[in-house]
Amino acid sequence: MSRPVVIGMAGGIASGKSRVASEFGAVGCVVVDSDLEARAVLRRPEVISTLVGWWGNAILNEEGGIDRSKVAAIVFNEPDQRVRLEALIHPLIYLTRSEAIKKAAAAGAPGVIIDAPLLFEAGLDAECDATVFVHADRAVRLHRVVTTRGWDEAELDRREAAQMPLEEKRSRCDHVIINNGDDEALRASVEGVFRAVRRSISA
User: Fold this and answer.
1) Domain range spanning residue 50?
2) Interatomic CA distance for residues 180 and 137, integer angstroms
3) Residue 48 CB coordination number (10 Å)
């Protein structure tokens, strides 16, 4: 193929999209982590200045950078502020993502994985050749957020309520990958999905 296939990933909180992305990386794909890109954007001086202008110095940490937890508290409780924030940072992330895809193509990578928390909400699926829903049982996801993030069930519910319903995400995806903790099954599923996507694009 003359260009890498672009695959977008969606899923619930703590479904393990990053883990799945690492398996795609093992078959040669370049992974674009939108969350990491967003963190980088939030470190830009011009973005910090804009956000302080909106919400005041209270959103800064001791080093003068953005305290992401304080920004999260604002945008999860005020949908209009969330829209405002996304309108600022999404175009910047788009530029870095586009550059990463160009570099992947130049390097001959067979695929690019877009790991984005808000794949459909942000319209990123329009940039993809195929989309994958990463499924993990709710009990598994709850255990993950309790042990790794210190959340309780109410916090998981609150965060998910601010996103597109899981069943809608799943119905809009082309493929489903189960990620309940079986590494061997996960690896086989990722390899199978990647082969299927490449066949469908090259057909």
Assistant:
1) 5-196
2) 7
3) 16
What is the spatial distance between Cα 3 and Cα 129, in angstroms, rounded to a whole number?
Answer: 11
Residue 64: φ, ψ to 5° = 90, 5
pLDDT tens string for the chain (203 positions)?
468 999 999 999 999 999 999 999 999 999 999 889 999 999 999 999 999 999 999 999 999 999 999 999 999 889 899 999 999 998 999 899 999 999 999 999 999 999 988 899 888 999 999 999 999 999 999 999 999 999 999 999 988 988 899 999 999 999 999 999 999 999 999 999 999 999 998 76
Write out the two tokens for 142: 């709850």
In a domain, 65, yes or no: yes
The reported pTM is 0.86
Judge whether 67 lies within some domain.
yes
For tokens 């909180």, the residue is 13
SS3 13: coil
> What CATH number is given to the structural domain containing 147?
3.40.50.300
* Residue 202 forms part of a structural domain: no
Residue 188 amino acid letter: A
Within a domain: residue 203?
Answer: no
Report the number of distinct structural domains present in the chain: 1
**Count of residues making up the chain:** 203
